[in-house]
Amino acid sequence: MDSPEYVRDPHAFFTRLRFHSPVAQAVGPGGLKLWVVSGYDEARLALADPRLSKNVDVARRSILANINRKADVMAFAVDLVSHMLNSDPPDHTRLRSLVNKAFTVRASEKLRPAVESITRKLLDDMAAHTETDLLHAFAHPLPMAVLCELLGVPLPDRERFDHWLGARMSNDPQRIAAAAPALLGYLRELVDHKRRAPADDLLSRLVQAQSADGRLSPEELVATTFLLLVAGHETTVHLIAAGMATLLLHPEQLARLQRDRGLLPGAVEELLRYEGPVKTATLRFTTEPVELAGTRIPPNSPVAIALTSANRDDKQFDAADTLDITRPTAGHLAFGHGIHYCVGAPLARLEAHVAFTGLLDRYPDMQLLCAPGDLVWQPGMFRGLASLPIRLRPPGH
């Protein structure tokens, strides 16, 4: 699952896997043998099964260390695993309850003016160019700026955040290892600053919740902040960039959306289903034998649930390999399912709606500057482009 062929086209790999068995063993990054759940029904069951644990204990960290292969990166990661994505109830319930209120639909709507303002600024900056890389000029900085607003990162520090998040997205172990200690140190400083001088932002509220009744340890506070940064930034970057690329590769669907912007909410859901930003959910581990689709998974086994595969399962979605922005997409698993359903889904949808609206309004003649086969996809759990070269307007326009 880390071959160049898989990185370029995971859908072909998962189609073959679903055909032979929706639950099967495979070899993951670093040579790790794991169980892959690729069918929709099986994935939905697995995502909600409490016997598939998310708790990262010392033994499981050793497995993750084998995947990463970089001791320095892993040492950094161990400091940042105490968050809700790596926990089961009751810890998960406690951690998630502190974050939930910031990511309701209503709370996310309060951020709309800021998202729209950031979007306009980025679109204005792009106007100076006929050609650009949409990922780096727009899709990367938009969610970064939104997260900085949400967390209350001071303006002078945001350039450093951009550098760290860029290193994280590079998938370059050396860059990540170099940036990791500085990011960890800064997050600790930022938490301490919010404790001394709280403001009207999410991080201040998390710090105050910890101070009020001890529900959040210092390690959990820093780890939760890190989780919000990584999960809230990288996934939205890829949703915007891969989503726009997908529309450009399907001009008839793009034309329908241009004619009727009322289709946009459904189009975003279809883009999430068709080319969602997460290929496989973070690893789970069986606490006892688990049977799925007639296959017995032994205890203490790592399990990868392939969201991108489940969303292309013809048993759930008719002609699943076809993009149709008007199709019913209810039940897609791009944001997961069960207690670990993505807490930031309302904000991600808001950012996508604002981003696509701005791009289509300002640059209706946008074109892809490379052949579809020349698009470079990044390795790892995310389904994300390395770049998206585009022409904003026709030559001489």
TrEMBL record:
PROSITE patterns hit by this protein: CYTOCHROME_P450 (PS00086)
This protein's UniProt keywords: Heme, Iron, Metal-binding, Monooxygenase, Oxidoreductase
Entry similarity comment: Belongs to the cytochrome P450 family.
Keyword Glycoprotein: no
PANTHER family, A to Z: CYTOCHROME P450 YJIB-RELATED (PTHR46696:SF1), P450, PUTATIVE (EUROFUNG)-RELATED (PTHR46696)
Name of the protein: Cytochrome
One protein family per Pfam: p450
